[in-house]
Structure formats: C-alpha cells, structure tokens
Amino acid sequence: MNRYFWQHTLQYFLLLITIISVLISFYFITNPQLQRTLATAAISLYPLWGIIHHYQEKNLTLEIITEYLALTLLMYWIVAAVF
To answer: pTM (2 decimals)?
Structure first.
C-alpha cells in the first residue's frame, strides 16, 4: 500500500509540475506562435501521461483511451479557437 501511494503521488506531482510550468511559461512568453507550440506540447503530454498511468494500473481499456483522445481533441480545438 505504501509503495502504491508514493508511486501515484509522484505521478500526479509530475503532472502538476508540468501544468504549473506551462502556466508560468505562458505568463512570460508573449509570442503567440511559441504559446501555441507550448500549448500543443502540453496537450500532447496529457493523454500520454493518462494512458501510461492506466497501463501501469493495469486498467487501461478502449473506453479510457477514447476518453483521453476525445478530451485531447477538445483541448486542441479550444487552443485553435483562441490562437
């Protein structure tokens, strides 16, 4: 149980650090093309993180993959609409 808790804490901590880093970078970067590239990279990492997380949990299903991909497409659509 202790190993399980720490393994997941590390995974979520790395995801949180990535999100915070992207948000801070958006504050300092004023070039819209660079912001779009940063947003695309961050959006691409999210489903990758989720699929790896569920694979390690041994509960990865087609529904979970579809959900991550649908959410990723929605995020891409929002970024494309903003920029």
So the answer is: 0.76
